[in-house]
Amino acid sequence: MIQSILKADSTTGWTASSGASLTGVTSEMIAGINTAAIMASFGTATGLYIEYVFPVAITIGEFEDIIFHMFSQNHGKQDYRSSADFSYKIAFGASGKEYYLPIYDTFTDISLHIVGLTTIDKIKITKTVAGEDNLVLSNFVLQKQDVPLDIFIGVKEQIEYYRDKLAKITLGTLANLVSGVTSIIFPSDVEYIDRYACIKIYDGTNFEIHQIAIRHVLTFEFTDLYDGKSLVHSYTSATIELFIPIEYGIRQKEILVPSITIWGMEPEEEKIDNGISMLVDSYKTDDTFSERMEGSYQNYTLLIDCEARQDGLLAKLSQVVRRMIGGRVVWVGGRRCEIDFYGSAKEMEPAENYNYIPKVEISCKVGIQEDIFDRKTLPITKTIKIDSEVQ
User: Fold this and answer.
1) CA 242, CA 387: separation in Å to the nearest integer?
2) 29, 189, 197, 200: which has the highest count of C-beta atoms within 10 A?
3) How many folded domains does the chain comprise?
């Protein structure tokens, strides 16, 4: 479960101290499904900073971690054991919301345990050592791990990204649509639209999604799914687009055709950890830090169904899924995870008269480390007694 709070795909809203600057954006290192990440430059002095102040403070609620991606050109390292090892710190607002930043020499995720904080007012990144440096940072999200739901959401978002790139099908333009009507009429026949199909209606300002319940020649009535049985907005001129729903676990919903559906929730444990290692992270500038047992590594096998009545559209949906898996990367809970094909895709033709919808089944595996142990914030040790002092 995640909540995006700042994509960091634009320098808009960011400010820098004297000696530091926001130099622009890059498309080479990007977290999530963003299109860019911001770049910052720091001079030789210590105490230089960049800062983003939220117009309205972010309420943390039940979220436990903040995750984001960073890269340091000159001060990235792989080992952090004490405050002297860190080159940056990050503040999230008022006093007590400041952490040391473990920035690595590769573009990777940073996770900070933020239990105890109630709001995030700003993001302020300060360089604490001398020497010039360049940073890349991207995609700040709040997270509370909820596997396998996180995996479903991550895969769904990734498929939606490729759907919008590869499977956008415009059906036409309609004029003078009035809110409250329960059907639309096309002037001529349209492809792909039949019972259980979904359409998107938009005009550049408003949009809505409806599922087709019944087709009477060129008149299409709606079900109560998505935006309901009647138009929400009025349109002087609206574009009508075929909408391909991407869903997971839709047993409780009406059938969706065409659509892509994600199934599967039983993982296989990967024996690549010792199971007893203690991980220390989230060093605060008051010298407290968090500790937890190492999580277990799991492989989730997912079955992705592509369903459509027309062979051409079915092939297009299959292409979307293959393109997503072929990238070998999926973003789960703000973290970069591996995804790969598992077995062969299967094309399933209708076997009976009542089973009239062909589909393609594609299997894949997603690897993830599950944080199955709670983090604990260790208190600062004030006094240590030796045996001679104990009576």
Assistant:
1) 76
2) 197
3) 3
In 3D space, the residue among 327, 326, 339 whose CA is nearest the CA of residue 368 turns out to be: 339
Answer yes or no: do 29 and 88 share one domain: yes
Q: Domain check: are 119 and 220 in the same one?
A: no
**Mind listing the pLDDT tens digit for each residue in 63-103?**
989 999 999 999 998 888 778 889 999 999 866 678 999 99
Regarding whether 230 and 117 lie in a shared domain, the answer is: no
Kindly report, residue by residue over 342-385, the tens digit of the pLDDT.
Answer: 988 888 876 655 556 889 999 999 998 887 767 666 665 554 45
SS3 262: strand
Q: How far apart are CA 305 and CA 346, in angstroms?
A: 10
What is the residue type of 332? V
Contact 245, 198 (CB under 8 A): yes
Residue 390 has pLDDT above 50, yes or no: no
Are 91 and 122 in contact by the 8 Å Cβ rule? The answer is yes
**Domain limits at 191?**
168-243
How many Å apart are CA 89 and CA 101, to the nearest integer?
Answer: 5
Residue 96 resides in a domain: yes
Residues 271, 233 share a domain: no
Q: Within 10 A of 18 (CB to CB), how many other CB atoms are there?
A: 8
